Amino acid sequence: MLNVGSIEQGFVLDHIKAGKAMTIYHDLRLDQLDCCVAMIMNARSSKMGRKDIIKVECPVDQLDLNIVGFIDPNITINVIEHGEIVEKKALGLPKEIRNVIKCKNPRCITSIEQGLDQVFILTDPEHAVYRCKYCEEKYHGHRRD
Amino acid sequence: MHRQLKNLRHVMSPLDLSVEELDHIMELAADMEKNPGKYAHVCDGMKLATLFYEPSTRTRLSFETAMLNMGGNVIGFHSGNTSSATKGESVADTIRVVSCFADICAMRHPKEGAPMVAASKSSIPVINAGDGGHQHPTQTLADLMTIRQTKGRLSNMTVGICGDLKFGRTVHSLISALVRYPGIRFVLISPEELKLPSYVKEEHLDPNHIEYKEVIRLEDALPDLDILYMTRVQKERFFNEDDYIRMKDFYILNEEKMKLAPKDMYVLHPLPRVNEISVDVDDDPRAAYFKQVYWGMYMRMALMFTLLELEVK
Lengths: 145, 313
Description:
heterodimer; A: 145 residues; mainly beta; Alpha-Beta Plaits; SH3 type barrels; 2 domains; 5-stranded antiparallel β-sheet; 2 helices; 9 strands; elongated; B: 313 residues; alpha/beta; Rossmann fold; 4-stranded parallel β-sheet
């Protein structure tokens, strides 16, 4: 078993579907953070068989993790301070999703306008319905890979 | 330098205006029609930019006439081919440029949401003059005003909507605006293939407990209606020409069918009409579709007057 040391301050994203850590790394824009990130892929899991884990060493207010609730609500997030788990973050659906999913409506302005963010707004939290900010095209549920 | 506004507002959908604001705009439009001289110079020295990325006759001329009637001027382009869009200029850049010249802008674009992109970068009010199959708020203002002027009210009535209820943006906008008034009932008249999408029912009809029924034959609905809103089966909304040809003649209103309708049932249509309303209906006093064009212009005057925060001296 490969050993990755514990972190002093930051987050541990656990129970990521095996093989998806890299996608989440990009969705959370961890490549743009000036901090230490460890990715463990294909780790053994009694619950999932195989899973991925991401450890991020950074101040706890530096990362917006709301998007994880949309990507996969089964992921668990542990908040670490002074080397200890201080919080297990409950994941809800974010009110707004930016540049994670693309509008599939071929008539939407996002299909041609350069430099325009893909923005989806949560319009029906009960049924997990998002709509494109521009054309109101519906996106239902969590992200489908 | 354009007019400095206390509160920069854009109109993307009819729901951007509250019922109270709509009432005020309708009052204003009625006053503008009655007293044109009072408003003939309120926009002296101001410019409207009509940015039309796709062709339109009524909407563009209506906006332009509205501004000319208030003493202002008009600049703009009439198709995407004659603008910098052909060189690849983004909507965001175009509106930043136009904001340097004009005081207010009306934008039509084939892509849905384009006016919203413009609004987010604009320093002048942007009015959505139609974005693909999405929204066309000033058409809805014209529709509401025509209903109010012909029936004397916007509440307690049965509104029949006939034709293309699936792709018709004017239909969806009108429904969303009318459900805010008490006692509105709908009769939705369409072929199976062009029925009102379930999301419109789920978002506007069901939560507001609006009574509605869906029927296939126009004749069955006519005797119970206060308003009949006819729509064109639009060729440009179809991906397949065979489907269009098969459907376009489904519902035709003629003199014969008008005999089934009450004497005070008015017929509206967003125009252009192809053949869904026979020309023999045009002389019927209940034909209100050209009045819609008439009132549409006054509503655009009143809307621009409001967004520009103008006052009559």
